[in-house]
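Predict fold of HEAT repeat domain-containing protein; 426 aa.
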Amino acid sequence: MDGRGGETTRAVVRVWEGAAPAEVFDVVPAEDWLAFDADVRELHDRPWLRSRPAEEPERPVPTLLDRLRGRTGSRAAPPASPPPPPPAIALCHPDGRVREAALEAVRTAPELRPLLVVRCADWVSPVRERARALLAELPGDALFPLAELILRLSRRERGDVARALLEDALREAPAAEVLALTGHPDRATYRLAYRIAVERGLLTPMELAATAATCGDVTLQDLCAEAAVKPGAAPGPDAAAVLDRLLTARAPRVRAAGVTALRRAGRHGDAEPFLVDRSGVVRACARYVLRQGGVDPLPVYRALCADPVAHPAAAAGLGECGDRATDAGTLWALLGHPRPSVRVHTISGLRALDVVERERLTPLLDDPSPAVVRAATRALLPDAAGIPEHLLRERSTPERPRAVRVAVDRLLRAAGLQRRPAPRYR
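Predicted 3D structure, encoded as C-alpha cells:
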C-alpha cells in the first residue's frame, strides 16, 4: 500500500476477498494504516468494487456494508449464515461493537497490531479501553516497529496513552534497540529516540557533538549540543575535543552552543575569532563570553574594521555593539568598500546601530551584487513609503536585473503602491 486512494481501496478488497493479512499488511507507512482504516468505513455504503459479469441477471449491487453484514446476494434473500468479516476488516468496521469484538484476534495475528494501535485512539470508549489494555500486554520491544504510527496518532485527542506506553518501553529497553530507532526515517520517531537516549546517557558527548554538527534537524541540533556541553558531560581532554567539534559546525545554533560553553571551560579568549562569525547569534555569544572574561569586544571590532577584507562581518559586529556618535561614520565609509561581503555586513551594522538613512541607501538598489541589493531592501522596507515612487518605477522595467526588480516590487508593496501579487521573475 502507498496510502494514495486506489491502493488502500484495493487492499480493503483483497483482504475481504480472502487474502492473508500478511500478504497485504507488510511493512507500510503509518499513513497507510490510517488510510486503510478510513477506507473500510468510507466504502461500507458504496457499491462493491468488483464488477458483475454481463451474463448475470440484473439485481441490486451489494455494498461493502452488505458484505460485512453477510449479505452477498439480493437484499431480499440474505444467506442464512453470513460469514463474519476478516479480522482486519472487522477492526475498522463502522459498528463499534464489531470493532471491539475483533480486537481479540490481534492476540494471534501480530501483523494486525498496527490496527490495534489505531483502535487505541478510537472514538468509542469501550473499544478504546479494550485496545489500550491489549496494547499494554505486549512486550516493550513489540511497540518499537509501531513507533511511527503511535506518534502519528498521538497528535489526536485520544492518542496519548499509546505514546506513554512507547516512551516507558524505550526507557526500559536495551540501549541497542533505542539507538536503532535514532536512525528511523520518521522525524517524530527519531526525535523521541534521541530524547530518550540523551535522558538515559546512551550517547557519548562526542557522539552528541557529532550529531549536532552534522544533522539538519534544528531540534536535534539544540538537544544534542546542549547535552554534549552540560557540566560533567566529558572530562579533561575529551571536553576540549567536544567543544572543538561544536565550534566547527556549519549550523549557527551549534556553533553558538559551543562558543557559550567556552566560558564554563575557562577558555574565554578562544571566543575572540567568533566575533566575526557570519551569524549574528554566534557573534553575540562571543561578545558575552569575552565580557565574562574581562575583555571589551568593541575595541577589537574597531581595529578589525580598519581593514575588513579578512573579516567582513566585523562591520556587522561593530554596529551590534558600537556607539552611534563614534562608529556610524566608520560604517558609512565602509559602504563604498569594493568587496560585496563588506557592503552587505556594513548594511547589517547600520541597521543594528539604528542609523539607516533612506537617501544614502536607496542608490544601493542598483548595486551589482544581488546580496547587497537584498540587504539594502531589508534596510529600506520600514521607510519604503518615503522613497519617491518614480525612483522605484523606473527600476522595475524588464531590462533591469532580476534582483533589482524583486527589490522594487517588495518596496512598492511595503509602501502600499502595489497590491497585486508579486510577479514571477525569470
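DSSP finds 25 helices and no strands in the chain.
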